Amino acid sequence: MKKVYVKSYGCQMNVYDAERMSDVLAPEGYAQTDRPEEADLVILNTCHIREKAAEKVYSELGRVRQTKQERAQAGRETKVVVAGCVAQAEGAEILKRAQVVDAVVGPQSYQRLREILRAAERRRVVDTEFPVADKFDELPALDARRVRGRGVTAFLTVQEGCDKFCSFCVVPYTRGAEVSRPVAKVLAEARTLAEAGVREITVIGQNVNAYHGEGPDGRTWGLARLLRALAEIAGVARLRYTTSHPRDMDEELIAAHRDLPSLMPYLHLPVQAGSDRILAAMNRKHTGDAYRRIIERVRAARPDIALSSDFIVGFPGESDADFEETMRLVADVGFASAFSFKYSPRPGTPAADETAQVPEPVKAERLARLQALLEEQRQAFNRDTVGRTVEVLIEKSGRHPGQLAGKSPYLQAVVVENAGLSVGDVVPVTIVRAGSNSLFGGTNASRAGAPPTQPDVSANASAGEAALAVQ
Ligand code: SAH
Ligand code: SF4
Ligand code: F3S
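Above: inputs. Below: predicted complex with iron/sulfur cluster.
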């Protein structure tokens, strides 16, 4: 049996694509492996968002070349494919820079992977077309047997591409124009996931709340309506969505947070910066105060919602005063978690041509200050959970015997002491301690659906602490 090793970088969209690539290859007899040295086919599913992310590909290709040589000495052939956003952005350039690569396949072309591999037997191939046909129509239908084994949480792409053209961002160029999948297709895929035992679906898209898919009634459905339909599917205990844009955060979606118990109280809503001048230069088309007002409305609908965001420091022209506006926005809003980055000029994007680039040491200092504040907020949010009972979806076994690992509604990692639980259960857990990256708690409930029992906090507290003293 042939083996394929797929390594994904970047966002959740790439995780989804990587799974679908292995689905495409399964009928060719490829089994998945997590050991590159035993792979007949290596696929690097790449990310182009920042320079560092893009450069990682070339260091990884160096390692792949080594493995390919070793395998060749043992008489075994290895094919190497670069997929994803670097493939789209750099195309044939990759073949020039890395001799080891046999094929370059863009994010809108991987449904043709089998044909591409056949062609690569004869010559090196570049396929970075944006096809007219819908990629999703050409992909094999999701197979419940293959989904099983991928765990109880799954990503489901409902929207792809971006028409927003933020001045720093490569996504509109690497992923193409915004496209929404029809509602019926999304629901069919969600049902297959549920049948395969998936308990939590995260609906994904580069701008997922710009979703405007064709409904079964012939009308255009927005994300809120799609979420309402997904919430009806038996077995799906939890729904999440990511990534959303402030401009598409409409009243219907906010109302869904109020009305749908399975829609988790967690919102990742990137703001990027706090200064209106910088937001305008970024072409975000919203102000800092507009963002604050959205957050107020979301919190009114769902008071316990946890917020998360993305930030860029050192965008061209960002002054000290502009940066202080970002710090002020973070202080005003309060985030449960966040991602923050130094601005990285990307070829082909308007901001890369700006002359007023911020010096590296200034970027580094701003990032350190911002991250310190965000980390303080994250820790405070986690500490606030201690003493509370939260529902945890058990995702896998923990590091120590008798432990299980799962997530709270607020996407916090939770280690649970209870040997009687199974993966896929959703149980109330009383949090007894907040570590630096995980919460710890215990439960007496044994199965999902069982009436919540009164957790024995003291007994579980000692068990949790003892087992994890060396965390
Ligand atoms: N579609 C999402 C984000 C996609 S990229 C949105 O609109 O928010 C994920 C994050 O990477 C962005 O939110 C941004 O914070 C960061 N990012 C994108 N381009 C970047 C660049 N050139 N330099 C630094 N960070 C960048
Ligand atoms: Fe990039 Fe902006 Fe589109 Fe997000 S909205 S993917 S940051 S261009
Ligand atoms: Fe990276 Fe492409 Fe996602 S650039 S963040 S993998 S859309």
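The pocket of FE3-S4 cluster (ligand 3) is lined by residues 10-11, 13-14, 47-49, 84-85, 170-171, 174-175, 206 (CB under 6 Å).
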